[in-house]
Write a structure and sequence with these properties.
2 domains; 4 helices; mainly alpha; 86 residues; two-stranded antiparallel ribbon
Length: 86
């Protein structure tokens, strides 16, 4: 089973499970550059002087709780995505 296929037999993790997962899951920065992406970001920076534009790519470690929420497109529940972004 992969990240995009929900495991329908897995019970829904609790809010506390989600919070603990955010503290333990491994996120690794991927530093690949693509000139096309850089061009888009540069144009956004020119038109959005108060905010700019940034792009980060990360590899997410294996975690059953993360997979439960990600495979169902529910990473905003329990503040998962905001917590991981910090």
């Amino acid at each position: 089973m992969n990240l995009f296929e929900p495991n329908w037999s897995q019970a829904r993790p609790s809010s506390a499970d989600a919070q603990r997962m955010c503290g333990r899951i491994e996120l690794a920065s991927i530093r690949e550059r693509d000139e096309r992406v850089e061009q888009v970001l540069e144009r956004l920076r020119m038109t959005h002087s108060n905010g700019g534009a940034f792009l980060a790519v990360v590899s997410v470690g294996t975690d059953g709780v993360f997979n439960w929420f990600a495979s169902r497109n529910r990473l905003l529940e329990n503040e998962i995505l905001p917590l991981l972004m910090r």
